[in-house]
């Protein structure tokens, strides 16, 4: 039996975009074992921000592997974790000074909620329509980007209330009052005012579905990821902050996908001038090694009593060493600045394409987190077109992903080391693929 045939023995539960068997990857390129090369604009779903196998990250992992592979956090302190705390403190918002580490985004999301519950003595949480927070039971209960992520897994934990996310293009209110949807979205939506209705809905939920003194947290992705790369107006995040302050609720920012420079700031919440009480991070933090973080103020963290949460591998020495090197690369190579600059190039080129192609309903995003919403002639989501375009792009050597409830948003998330020539080439391939 050839090695390739072993793929039949892997669980079908992984929905697969490609059948590529990868041999190696470097920078923005990924190489199949058939000798084909691909520009990787998926970044392993937003993980390899420093590019694949950045030499300094690889060197740090190699060095740490010879010193200490597994340092269990209940038993010892290890230096990579302490160095990581030191490095994170340089980049997190002022006031955030206490850290807990785990392995995946879902784990960290669940941990953040456990912390918020202990810190407030309350049980409930408000999340947003279209959110994705992970695959574990707790995280599934918080996830509404696609029904299939929850289907067949009931019962899920209760106490979760779903409010509308504020995003102009597909906003029911904007449609109802006949706003120029495309126009609103194209014109820097985070600077445009919000009609305020989504915030009113949150306030309503706080009084109708639960009570303010039962709600431990409002949990939000500062840019909706899996749900379709939706950028909310700043006033929405600012309004949520005000509600949290009014009722003593923890504002939790799920920066799993948006963190570590992805949106052109270190953390996406910086775009809105809002500081969350708890920040959840993963993906880009360690360039591909499993690591996630819950980051908050010490006075909040101190309410989490010893032994009430933990894990065998969380804050693994190898992953922490990779994260320290990752942060160093992001800063030294000015990758946050590059994300902002290259993001503008990417959005600019895609918006130009939109001018000549009515199937592109919307181009939106921040930094190198850009979504292209494909629609049919009636403006309805066109997943078939998105799928065909992805397949044709792949044949031409470009890897892309989709997102959105209806799978019709093509997402561009290249490594933050990408150059404008590479963006130009990728958009060219996308254009050809769209027309093929
Ligand atoms: C915003 C967000 N939160 C949480 C998660 C879950 O992370 P993980 O797959 O590492 O559990 C993801 C994964 O895509 C995500 O995008």
Search tags:
about 425 residues, alpha/beta, Aspartate Aminotransferase, domain 1, Aspartate Aminotransferase, domain 2, 2 domains, seven-stranded mixed β-sheet, four-stranded mixed β-sheet, binds pyridoxal-5'-phosphate
Descriptive overview:
With 436 residues, the protein is of the alpha/beta class. It folds into two domains: 3-53 and 334-434, Aspartate Aminotransferase, domain 1, CATH 3.90.1150.10; 59-332, Type I PLP-dependent aspartate aminotransferase-like (Major domain) (Aspartate Aminotransferase, domain 2, 3-Layer(aba) Sandwich), CATH 3.40.640.10. It has 14 helices and 15 strands. The chain has helices at 43-46, 55-65, 79-89, 105-120, 137-141, 172-176, 181-186, 197-208, 234-247, 298-301, 317-332, 335-356, 383-395, 420-434; strands at 22-26, 29-32, 37-40, 98-102, 124-128, 160-163, 215-220, 250-254, 278-281, 292-296, 360-366, 369-374, 398-399, 401-403, 409-412. Strands 4-10-9-8-7-5-6 form a seven-stranded mixed β-sheet, sandwiched between helices. It has a four-stranded mixed β-sheet with strand order 1-2-3-13. It has a four-stranded antiparallel β-sheet with strand order 11-12-15-14. Helix 3 (79-89) packs parallel to helix 11 (317-332). The radius of gyration is 21 Å and the shape is globular. The two termini are 36 Å apart. The structure holds pyridoxal-5'-phosphate. Pyridoxal-5'-phosphate binds next to helix 4.
């Amino acid at each position: 039996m050839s090695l390739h045939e072993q793929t039949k023995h892997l669980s079908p539960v992984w929905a697969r975009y490609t059948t590529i068997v990868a041999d190696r990857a470097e920078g923005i390129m990924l190489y199949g074992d058939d000798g084909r090369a691909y520009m990787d604009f998926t970044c392993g779903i937003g993980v390899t921000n420093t590019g694949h196998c950045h030499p300094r990250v690889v060197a740090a992992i190699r060095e740490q592997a010879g010193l200490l592979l597994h340092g269990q956090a209940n038993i010892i302190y290890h230096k990579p974790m302490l160095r990581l705390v030191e490095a994170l403190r340089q980049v997190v918002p002022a006031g955030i000074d206490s850290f807990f580490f785990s392995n995946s985004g879902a784990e960290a999301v669940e941990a953040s909620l456990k912390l918020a519950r202990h810190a407030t003595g309350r049980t409930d949480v408000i999340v947003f329509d279209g959110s994705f927070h992970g695959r574990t039971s707790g995280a599934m209960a918080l996830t509404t980007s696609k029904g299939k992520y929850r289907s067949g897994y009931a019962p899920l934990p209760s106490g979760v209330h779903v409010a509308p996310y504020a995003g102009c293009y597909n906003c029911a209110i904007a449609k109802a009052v006949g706003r120029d949807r495309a126009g609103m979205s194209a014109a820097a939506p985070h600077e445009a005012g919000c009609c305020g209705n989504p915030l009113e809905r949150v306030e309503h939920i706080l009084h109708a579905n639960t009570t303010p003194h039962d709600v431990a947290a409002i949990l939000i992705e500062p840019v909706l990821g899996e749900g379709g790369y939706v950028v909310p107006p700043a006033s929405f995040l600012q309004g949520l902050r005000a509600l949290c302050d009014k009722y003593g609720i923890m504002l939790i920012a799920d920066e799993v996908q948006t963190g570590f420079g992805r949106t052109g700031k270190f953390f996406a919440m910086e775009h809105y001038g809002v500081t969350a009480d708890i920040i959840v991070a993963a993906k880009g933090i360690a360039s591909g090694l499993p690591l996630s973080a819950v980051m908050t103020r010490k006075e909040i963290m101190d309410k989490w009593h010893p032994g009430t949460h933990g894990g065998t591998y969380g804050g693994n020495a190898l992953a922490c060493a990779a994260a320290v090197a990752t942060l160093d690369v992001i800063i030294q190579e000015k990758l946050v600045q590059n994300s902002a600059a290259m993001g503008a190039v990417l959005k600019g080129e895609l918006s130009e394409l939109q001018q000549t192609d009515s199937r592109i309903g919307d181009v939106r995003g921040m930094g190198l987190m850009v979504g292209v919403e494909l629609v049919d002639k009636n403006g309805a989501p066109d997943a078939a077109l998105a799928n065909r375009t992805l397949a044709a792009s792949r044949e031409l050597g470009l890897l892309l992903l989709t997102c959105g409830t209806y799978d019709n948003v093509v997402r561009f998330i290249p490594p933050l080391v990408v150059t404008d020539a590479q963006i130009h080439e990728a958009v060219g391939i996308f254009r050809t693929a769209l027309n093929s």
